[in-house]
Amino acid sequence: MAKKKRLKIALIGYGAISQTMVDLFRAKKPPIDIVGVLVRPGRIGATRKQVGAKVAVVDTLKALLKLKPDVVVEAASQQAVRDWGEAILKKGIDFMVIATGAYGDPKLWKKHVKAAEKSGARLRLPSGAIAGLDGLLAMRLGTLERVKYTSIKPPHAWTGTPAETEFDLSSIKEPTVIFRGKPADAGRLYPKNANLAVTVALCGAGLEHTEIELVADPTLPPGTNASRLEVMSDSGELTMHRLGRAMPDNPKTGVLTALTMADDLMKLVRSSDW
Asked: Does pTM top 0.90 for this prediction?
């Protein structure tokens, strides 16, 4: 019996999301090899100490692609998506994107989809820290009447965002809407907090017909964040509420984000669809 091929992945960025995935793969031991990590110049030494000698650590995309990964996983930023996504897809390499806020720019989205179609690569959008996207994807085959996504995080998770100029975050005592608007604006103004606003839009009613609310909520249990997806369609209604643990060192991101990315890669191995 032929030995099953192992999936080779490369990571862009080595923050909380990448570290969680690496730890999970080492514990679960799926047939997945992390062949390299792309980091900013000056971060190679520190990152190499974290990942060990078996994983290449590089600071250019060219060096990363020389490792011949099957999938490049973006776990860094919207800028990384803009800078490197098209080049990766043109090489015929699958590209997993979590900073989907970059696709609030329809031109970039179309460019990446076109590159993937031409090369045969796949542009992979994991569900991130939300549930219910499978239902939304099915319901859009009918008629979507309303899609609303709400991201709920403690006030301190919104530090370093435009909310700081409009609200005294430390004095908020009850759930407070800090943004209400379109997905592209949420992703652009809150690039570390609201990427899922664009993911929901791309999976459902589109950028112009999806409602987004961002909420600062001091009543959440310590160390958690939450989200709510509400869909009305001709096939029925869907309401999904999630309460999840935030990354210990990054309250802007939920642990589930990294887990859904890892799960998608493990499903890919099981399906041999790569």
From this structure: yes
> What residues are paired with 33 via a beta bridge?
8
Report the distance separating Cα 246 and Cα 180, nearest Å: 23
Question: Cα separations (Å) of 52 from 26, 36, 41, 62?
Answer: 12, 11, 18, 21
Q: Does 7-125 carry CATH code 2.70.98.10? A: no
pLDDT tens for 45-75 read 999 999 998 999 999 999 999 999 999 999 9
Let me know: does 125 contact 202? Beta carbons within 8 Å. yes
Q: Can you tell me the distance from the alpha carbon of 256 to that of 252, in angstroms, rounded to the nearest whole number? A: 12
Ordered by start, the domain boundaries in the chain are 7-125, 133-252
Using DSSP, how many helices (H) and how many strands (E) does the chain show? 10, 12
CATH topology of domain 133-252: Dihydrodipicolinate Reductase; domain 2 (3.30.360)
List pLDDT tens digits, range 122-138: 999 999 888 899 999 99
